[in-house]
Amino acid sequence: MTLLNNPFKALLIVGLVTAPTITLAETPEEKGLRIAEEAKASDLGWQDMQAEMNMILRNKQGQESVREIRMKSLEVESDGDKSLSVFDKPRDVKGTAFLSFSHPVGADDQWLYLPALKRVKRIASRNKSGPFMGSEFAYEDLSSFEIEKYTYKFIRDEACDGGECYVVEQYPVDKNSGYTRRVVWLDQEEYRPWKIAFYDRKNSPLKTLTYHDYNEYEGKHWRPNLMKMVNHQTGKSTDLTYGSYQFKTGLSDKDFNKNTLKRAR
After folding, report:
1. Cβ atoms of residues 74 and 263 within 8 Å
2. Fewer CB within 10 Å, N side or C side of the chain?
């Protein structure tokens, strides 16, 4: 009997051919991880960067003090980024330098050079949640984003300053982190962070970081001109304003070591 005179069999075959492919839905954890991987991949290839930065410290009463900083960063293949920050003003912090080697797994390596003492102080991993130079940024906030540092959970889509954002919870893997979680808003077009809400070890709201005035460099790399960190528990805040971004300036590993800290001027 042919298909022409067996309509049941013909319908069965048509149904098999046209049946939609069944795909398993992503879990919130899988989607959160995928978004983090896509965000990281979207910014690869910048090689090195230099910029000027002002750090504006503001107390609960609104009184301000300003510090001028030069910063350098180096993209490292198969590891976290390296960064060097040198304070130029005011006079009481001039020559202070901070060096950070980020790592995807394990504790970051961080050192602070204090010119008044003429010595390099290593930042212990247990102190990474402490404030950096009196600001509302912790030492751990200054390391590069590495996928392995967190586990993830996608929460929702939400409108934000960047348009439509993914909202993802990130849970630090390091037991020495000062946070139980971070809630991150990333725009869905360029994967730029627009807001990060930090929760302390008691899972209470601690700080909020917002990003403003992005510019695109090298046709791919987006950097903010302003970052604002507000501490909800103390009423203090810190603004970081950036300028004079330069990419692919020829920096190398030799520009980032403990001897560099002492020579920083």
Report:
1. no
2. N
Helix (H/G/I), strand (E/B), else coil: 243: strand
| CB contact at 8 A, 225 and 215 | yes
Query: pTM of this prediction?
Result: 0.88
Q: What is the DSSP string of 148-166?
A: GGEEEEEEEEEEETTEEEE
Place of tokens 């930042």: 123
Phi and psi (nearest 5°) for 204? -100, 150
At 231-265, the pLDDT tens digits run 999 999 999 999 999 999 999 999 998 887 877 65
Q: Report which of 50, 17, 48, 42 is spatially closest to residue 191, judged by C-alpha positions.
A: 42
Are residues 217 and 247 in contact, defined by beta-carbon separation less than 8 angstroms?
yes
For domain 28-263, the question of CATH label 1.10.620.20 is answered with no
